[in-house]
Amino acid sequence: MTAKFLPVAAALALLSGPALAATGPTDPQIAHIAYTAGSLDITAGKDALAHSTNPKVREFAELMIRDHQAVNDKAVALLNKLHVKPEANPTSAALSKEAAATQQKLNLLRGDAFDRAYIANEVAFHRTVNGALEKTLIPDAHNAELKSLLETGLALFREHQAHAEQLEKTLK
Length: 172
Hints:
elongated; mainly alpha; Ferritin
């Protein structure tokens, strides 16, 4: 089941593709990738609230919405302060495309099957995004404030990953 919901890894693999490989992503591209990832998880959380009746899954979805919205709000405030416009890029586009495909697949599921697939996707999503933050986005960020925000986000998103992994064990 999990293999069906791992497209984020392919999307973030674009970070090493030809469009960004020569110099790595720029700060405006990094901001767009990070904001897009957060927005996608907010959407997934809202979708989970619409489909799940499991109290633990719903609580997790609410946490994803709250935390990712808070980080995205801080990102927007920082970008406004720095007068930086996020720059769309192939990685952000691929993330959005793959998330839409995953959402379609999840929307076909009901009950426990939905809950298991949603949480498995959240585990995979956080693993992949956390890896991209550690290996590419944070090291390639030039602005100290952007780098700091990404590091703060990474600490929080590691907690999300651990929470999702624990929840996944209870849903099997």
